[in-house]
Amino acid sequence: MSSPLERDIRARIAAHGPMPVADYMALCLADARHGYYVTRDPLGARGDFITAPEVSQMFGELIGLWMAAVWQQMGAPARVRLIELGPGRGTLMSDALRAAKVMPGFLAAASVHFVEISPALKAKQQETLRGIAPPLSWHASLDEVPDGPIIVVANEFFDALPVHQAVKTARGWCERRVGAAGDKLIFTDADAPIAGLEARLPASAREAAAGAIFEWRDDDTALTLGRRIFRDGGAALVIDYGHAASAVGETLQAIGRHAFADPLATPGELDLTAHVDFEALARAVTATGAVALGPLTQGELLGRLGIAARAAKLKAKAPPDTAAQIDAALARLTGSGRGEMGTLFKAIAVAHPALGAPPAFEA
Questions:
Q1: Which residues have CB under 8 Å from 199's CB, separation 6+?
Q2: Could you tell me the sign of the dihedral formed by the alpha carbons of 127, 64, 46, 141, in that order?
């Protein structure tokens, strides 16, 4: 049985022809009535996936200490805006603010700004951070956050931004689109090559075989982030799963109930993501005058921020069963085995040129 959004998508295809993959992904995730993130809380064991802040408090605590150290590095401005892009249930920020209390004056200078499109998740964030200072505000986009020095955190945010796809054919690199055939949605190719795509293609694309897929995102969010940091000062920490260098290959995937699924099945009811191209992201932010550092793997980032010492401190006061859970969380956040985040996830820092390298990125 088709989902309500699938019926809308089919009507669009019938009226205008197959749609770009990026348009399909945007509808699936952010449609005002039926979009995946608009209609539900997808996180946790009862949802579709678990993010690092939900694995352990250690993740958010270390990010909070990172933010406090960056504020001090900025010269401890009297006012600073802490911005989280895609804040989930608010778990990361809650843990971060608790840990950041150790920095005198930091929370008194800070206001918190969440960039969130989901009413369901906004309600969760309000519940998680109820009674927590500093002042909290919500915005639909980064552009809406008031001017002033900023410290930004984006954990698993960029992977959910719509991704374009092109397929290598005998005619050249043609846009991949979503069409309809009978009772199914299908992938199809545009007739003509994409003009100007060559400027985005990595060197490896020249040797790609027929049928190879190249993915890219619009630079709008990265450019906004870089311009804001260059204009007002501050830094950002972007953590996501993806590849350090631009490359050919398909990474679009759908997840439901902690398992992979068909991205064309039940639109609006599955999480759609694609790997982040960190080279392209860094190129976009540096074009604004900001500085990009990294990427580091998540394991390297958390290791440099002191996660081993934090885990040991928590274990020292914990009963044996809880200590085992801390060890398991540490392995999941920093390890490289199956189901672990340490190498799959990577991090870059974006900073004002006058700031210098933020913590963990000094090398």
A1: none
A2: positive
Torsion of CA 303, 309, 44, 242, to 10 degrees: 0
- Alpha helices (H) along 17-73: 21-30, 36-39, 52-55, 57-73
Nearest to 109 by CA among 78, 152, 151, 143: 78
First to last CA, the chain: 54
Distance CA 214, CA 251 (A): 9
Per DSSP, the three-state class of 219 is coil
Q: How confident is the model at residue 40 (pLDDT cuts 50, 70, 90)?
A: low
| Domain residue limits, the chain | 38-162+217-259+266-301+342-351
Q: Which CATH superfamily is domain 38-162+217-259+266-301+342-351 in?
A: Vaccinia Virus protein VP39 (3.40.50.150)
What pTM was computed for the model? 0.95
Of 359, 351, 343, 363, which Cα lies nearest the Cα of 300?
343
**Parallel, antiparallel, or unpaired: how do β-strands 345-351 and 234-243 relate?**
antiparallel
pLDDT tens per residue, range 327-337: 999 999 999 99
Burial degree of 287 (CB within 10 A; 0-12, 13-18, 19+): middle
